[in-house]
Amino acid sequence: MVTIRDVGKHAGVSVATVSRYLNDKGYVSEETKNVLKKSIQELGYKPNQMARSLSTKKTNIIGLLVPDITNPFFPELAKAVEETAFSNGYTVVLCNSSEQQEKEKHYIQSLQQNYAAGLIVTTNYTEAEYYRHIKLPIVALDRRLDPTIPTVTTNNVEGAKMATNYLLEQGCKHILCIRGPQGIGVAEDRMKGFLEVVNNAQDIQVETITSPFEFTEAEQKAFNILSAFPTIDGVFAASDASAIGAMKAAQSLGRKIPDDIQIVGFDGISLGALVTPELTTVAQDIYHLGKVATELLLKKIKEEPIDNHLIELPTELVIRRSTK
Amino acid sequence: MVTIRDVGKHAGVSVATVSRYLNDKGYVSEETKNVLKKSIQELGYKPNQMARSLSTKKTNIIGLLVPDITNPFFPELAKAVEETAFSNGYTVVLCNSSEQQEKEKHYIQSLQQNYAAGLIVTTNYTEAEYYRHIKLPIVALDRRLDPTIPTVTTNNVEGAKMATNYLLEQGCKHILCIRGPQGIGVAEDRMKGFLEVVNNAQDIQVETITSPFEFTEAEQKAFNILSAFPTIDGVFAASDASAIGAMKAAQSLGRKIPDDIQIVGFDGISLGALVTPELTTVAQDIYHLGKVATELLLKKIKEEPIDNHLIELPTELVIRRSTK
């Protein structure tokens, strides 16, 4: 294996000079730089990344912490983060916490001990104390952790208002809201938008249930409430996953979509276009969300100034066949 | 920060002894071990993982290389690998190559340079030369790389035979096979199983198209061939993703499923139960597949003997509503 010593010898300079060059620390003349570049190429020298990391206390690793990789929203996000990071010379470590706080803590510790360059977080434990003590550059994605932490999210209140207004325009009179888990920012914001609209509407009856952003539980809960209230003619679900669960429930009760009941989801996952009928949804630009968050993190890593600590991306109502 | 020196001082032993203890190398008496354990606890000493890795040339990181994280098969697999690894004290780095060979190469290099403990690979570039030179413990998952590399896969030939026989039993006479990409082992095996059955059947007409394991392209291609051959009454798709694409194509042509056309997929992703009608499929036990591969890799990492270099898990025909 070629060592830093071999490079020095080949280039006719000291090991210290090679080290200064490799670590981009201290003065090396342009001429020497060129000679070193050539020697490194000719010898096929590969710096020992780990030894370098130990001295610089930095790697090119970005951690991406997600709560549930089997929720299709997150793979789509991960792809965007990974591609943006990669084209900037960074490698993404995808950490799936499976909604376990212990695991999340472990991953954060491990990333810090391995000198990760930065961290993108989409945790569901936004209150967790340990986020206050992370010494890495960090960006919150689709979640709000702390006003000091740069955040990229969707304008969830506006998106929910858009969906609810659309159900009213389509003539729905008895609306079921399938909200997301208590305490999760995006779930609270979408609920807030929904309530703002229905509270100002006339002659509207409203039911609300809570479900995780997940198919199976949503289907079960929707089945129960749709059985109990046969007059429900509209559903606003705070995620596409729960909307698709509600769709299955309605169909198994023999309710025709959209004739008997209209359904609007939230997220814009690709799956929404694959179910029958295709799902009307408040689409986030998931790829853009991941890309913007990664670019923001790269700025933090490079200690460049950040103008805007809260970036809220707009949503778009994608009308398909689950509404009239 | 507490150092190895502080631990030695506190325990009344030399730094070399602490180092021998921490790296599990060389003799340390049981008594000293107990004293050291206590000192480490009392002082809250945390070993610098990276410095340790540099001396042991090993970390507790397992790389998982997947070709496309947005194909729902892979997040389900990743979850299994991650949970099995985690409960054994390992951390998983998920590397998504987005089907790019350059990226795959980069990830493998980076994992090696960072002293990953091992690698689980589900690449689509099974011929790639660089797999022959990897110096890490490696397990191939759902793909065959090399007879010397332990492999966990599904019995794809048998699964495909089961699906095709079922379509024949259901009375299909004109069958479309949507095969997977040329040169990918699982795609070839599923094709082989399909052909074995139809070549031995009487009065059966067969069409074949090739599609990646992905929705959109499968939908388009299925649309074209279903338009050209209105008598096609059965589809065997080599993945659930392409089966769901075919389903959408059939529906947009006004063909009733399963009355006019019956469809069977392959994989058993959760999504299959969410589409309408629910998809009949050759289900792999995806979680089990990931778990077994991880356990096999852990054996290799610990240099334990491996009895079986090719583990083929059985499949199960899950009959839902896309067949009669």
Automatic annotation (TrEMBL), chains A, B:
Residues 2-56 form the HTH lacI-type domain. The keyword Glycoprotein does not apply. PROSITE patterns: HTH_CROC1, HTH_LACI_2. GO terms for molecular function: DNA-binding transcription factor activity; transcription cis-regulatory region binding. SUPFAM superfamilies: lambda repressor-like DNA-binding domains, Periplasmic binding protein-like I. Keywords: DNA-binding, Repressor, Transcription, Transcription regulation. Residues 3-43 form the HTH cro/C1-type domain. The keyword DNA-binding applies. Coiled coil: none annotated. This is Transcriptional regulator. It comes from Rummeliibacillus stabekisii.
